[in-house]
Design goal:
InterPro entries: Metalloenz_LuxS/M16, MPP/UQCRC_Complex, Pept_M16_N, Peptidase_M16_C
Radius of gyration: 25 Å
Number of strands: 14
Protein name: Insulinase family protein
Organism: Laspinema palackyanum D2a
Length: about 475
């Protein structure tokens, strides 16, 4: 209830149902002015001024990723991503670097994920020269202090020991193995043995292979003069010699087929009173011409007011949480993934209900109201990605990093606006494949009734062993 106060009189107005809410037309996306240029050594640079606060921040994207680490050294990328910053530089020890940054309330951070590495900094504009100098040191002359490498490996070992504490983490990890294959670079798991195979020289060699100026995109946003910022970049990074051209064929890493074609899989956790469920199959990439329509499909299926929420959670009372999302990636196939959490005895009805909703959106046209609501929510949430200049700059850099066109932002928006009821049903039929859906449950089989075997014609449920291999004693 809403309370309205007027001249001392209190009245009440009933809260509106979500279907009665009206969205204002989403605002146009306007890119702030920016400069893009290349240094003589091949580094691509974006500069975007933002004078709202006396702050400057920047990020370098490096063309690498832990998908390029050897399988028997899984974890090498994460170790490098951590120790690049924590291991100090040739001019400043780890403690000295920490103290210099803390004194200025500044930060320099580094990391490596599946498809890229990044190094970032943030500082007050008055401290830009000093902090950017430290940022350049971390990029160019990391020391990789041996004790920091051992500390990083020890911390990773602790994470291995705790990796089965969370049912959601178990489900996410094991589901990726079912879809991509356990040896795929998109699903490999760090083990004690793969950590023990990593030496300091391996970390240094991985760094030397990829960290070159002609393999980077640098973006800086904040309170600065572009001409002065360009001079600072030239001073700190302009004399960095380029390295050999890296030509990596991403396609050789990408899965050409789904590892498990359908099936029901179980991770037994007898102590649980609820089940965590993931259902899905191999997906696609963001550059698909059908991506805008698939985003609208997501809007129909998900969120407050989406079909899964309305049917599985509200009408049938089968879920604490439920979702079903076409989730693409920039340069390798993502997944269609549905799931949620429910009480143990509702596990099978939950799975059956999600399957019915997937089939329904494939076979029955959505309504005009559903289309409009999904388009509005999709566009409004998309526009939040450009709420401030740093978000916009990050998006532009990633489009260049992955080879997407400069106007991809606007192509996507036009595609969402042009999506029709027929488009949604067409992409649902094309991209949602019930026969390929893999179902994974993390839960207590003794409390799941009816049993999971009732979901398959041959009553087969495959158990997954998540025991952690012991570290080598050598």
């Amino acid at each position: 209830m809403w309370l309205l106060f007027n001249a001392g009189i209190v009245t009440a107005e009933s809260a509106k149902h979500y279907t009665d809410l009206e969205f204002a037309p989403p605002p146009e996306i306007v890119l702030p002015p920016f400069d893009r240029f290349e240094l003589d050594n091949g580094m691509v640079v974006y500069l975007m001024e933002d004078r709202e606060l006396p702050l400057v921040s920047g990020t370098a994207l490096i063309r690498t990723g832990d998908r390029w680490e050897p399988g028997n050294q899984t974890g090498l990328g994460q170790i490098l991503g951590q120790v690049l910053r924590t291991g100090g530089t040739t001019l400043h020890s780890p403690n000295e670097l920490n103290e210099l940054l803390e004194r200025r309330a500044a930060s320099v951070e580094t990391s490596i994920d599946t498809t890229s590495a990044s190094a970032s900094f943030s500082a007050l504009s008055q401290d830009l020269n000093e902090v950017f100098g430290l940022f350049a040191e971390v990029l160019r002359t990391p020391a990789f202090a041996p004790e920091q490498i051992e500390l990083a490996k020890s911390q990773q070992g602790g994470a291995i020991a705790r990796r089965n504490d969370s049912p959601s983490a178990i489900a996410s990890r094991e589901f990726q193995k079912l879809i991509y294959g356990e040896n795929s670079p998109y699903a490999r798991t760090i083990e004690y043995q793969t950590l023990s195979n990593i030496s300091r020289s391996d970390v240094v060699q991985f760094y030397q292979r990829y960290f070159h100026p002609n393999n980077m995109i640098l973006g800086i946003v904040g309170d600065f003069e572009k001409a002065e910022m360009r001079r600072l970049i030239e001073q700190k990074l302009g004399d960095w010699k380029p390295g050999p051209t890296i030509s990596k064929n991403i396609a050789e890493l990408s899965p050409t087929a789904q590892a498990q074609q359908g099936g029901v899989f179980l991770v037994e956790r007898p102590q649980l009173t609820q089940s965590t469920i993931q259902i899905g199959h191999l997906g696609g990439e963001l550059n698909s011409p059908d991506y805008p329509a698939l985003s609208v499909l997501n809007g129909v299926m998900n969120g407050f007011g989406g079909r899964l929420f309305n049917q599985v959670r509200s009408r049938e009372g089968l879920a604490y949480s439920v979702y079903g999302v076409w989730s693409p990636r920039y340069d390798y196939p993502g997944m269609f993934i549905a799931g949620g959490q429910t009480r143990s005895e509702a596990t099978v009805p939950f799975i059956q209900s999600v399957f019915r909703e997937i089939e329904r959106i494939r076979t029955e046209p959505i309504t005009q109201e559903e289309l409009q609501y999904a388009q509005d929510t999709t566009l409004n949430s998309f526009i939040f990605n450009f709420a401030d200049p740093s978000q916009t700059l990050s998006r532009l850099m990633r489009y260049e990093y992955y080879g997407y066109p400069e106007d991809f932002i606007f192509q996507y928006r036009r595609g969402v606006e042009a999506t029709t009821i027929e488009d949604v049903q067409r992409v649902a039929q094309k991209y949602l494949n019930p026969n390929q859906l893999v179902t994974l449950v993390v839960g207590n089989p003794m409390e799941i009734n009816p049993p999971l075997s009732s979901l398959t014609p041959d009553k087969t449920v495959t158990s997954i062993d998540i025991s952690i291999p012991e570290p080598s004693r050598s």
